Amino acid sequence: MASHRSIARIPLHVFADLIVHQDGDLYSPSDLRDAICRKLLEAGRSVYLVTDQGIATVGQLMRMSPTALLRALDPLLTIDECHELMTRISQICTPKPKTAQVLYSQLKNQYIPLDVNGIDRCLRGGVRIGMLTEIVGQAGIGKTQMVMQLCVVAARMGYGSIYVDTERKLSLQRLYEIARERAKKSSHGRPSSVTSDTRWKYGQDGFDYSGIVNNDDGGSDQLYMDGSNHEYKSPLQVMNNITVHTPASTEELLAVVSRLDEEIVVRSDASTITRTANGQETQQMPVKLVILDSIAAPTRKDFGGGSAMERAAAIFQLAQTLKRVADEMQVAIVVINQIDAANHGDVDQTFDNDGSCVKAALGTSWYHCVSTRIALGRDLQSSLGNSHAIRTATIVKSNLAGEDQALFEVTVRGIDHVNE
Known about the structure:
Helix content: 25-40%
Strand order of the largest sheet: 5-4-8-9-3-13-14-15-16
Largest sheet: 9 strands, mixed
């Protein structure tokens, strides 16, 4: 059950035809939902309520008995109407059982690509929807460039994004530049032509990725799994479909993360396509991507090195909430993490970067919370004699793809593929 869903965001049809005024007129669904929400929030502590702050979520409501709900809503609903309301909410909020075959079929199509051939191939398509992906690397290696490009590609596919910027280093000018340059390339690019020699697939695990074109030039003409050729959106459309949060502390970050599902529901319900007076099309897109940049910064600032227990508890709470939101709301959540120095032979998932031995921040417990970890580094050998610094993206952990590595460079268009 989507227990953390706000009662105020339950679809209106649940409240339709539920009760009738004494004069025979029907309550409008929106009026009834608002009235129920007010009464539950104002109920306060009593022997039959489960919280001293009223009832605000589906999970809290469904833990009440029909009699307790009747008392909280009196005289709004009768006991029969309370039973009916709880039945309707249960029907839409309780997840229906799915077979393994159905889940397997859905898994093949549920990703947002980076539109960089080598990295997408390593990830078996892209960043997975419904899962938690971590990007880790030293400062200036391209982590933020990568997630900004993800936001632009998500918009290309018709998805909006939420960007949680804990370090307040997000460059909106750079985001706009990436969107502009990719839209420019798309508008002047030729239509894709998918032939047998431009396709690639992973046949051994049963996943067919033949719908993805080898896009060595940056992938402006990539075809996606549904067979459609998505055009890049204008920079204005991209920027209009990214909301930015800037929490300054761990407490504020936890508050933002705890409200993600509500924002996702609100923005998805409001998704529309409209045309302006001059004929331009504007689109409000449903949210499918959440970026957290970065998770380590606020916890390091707030807890330092002397509050290990409190820091671990905060990180665990963040991880559990992010995983729940990813799964229940079916969005891709990408978290940027920093690195710490490590000793050679350290068992805590070390990897080499520029010849030094480093590890991702936040320790082993956090490592087990993510489904995929992408480690970024520099490829010193390939960079020799090259005007651009060549970087590496290494799949360190994945529950779908094996360990693999791809080369990329940062350009005016964001992240681009480098032929190996």
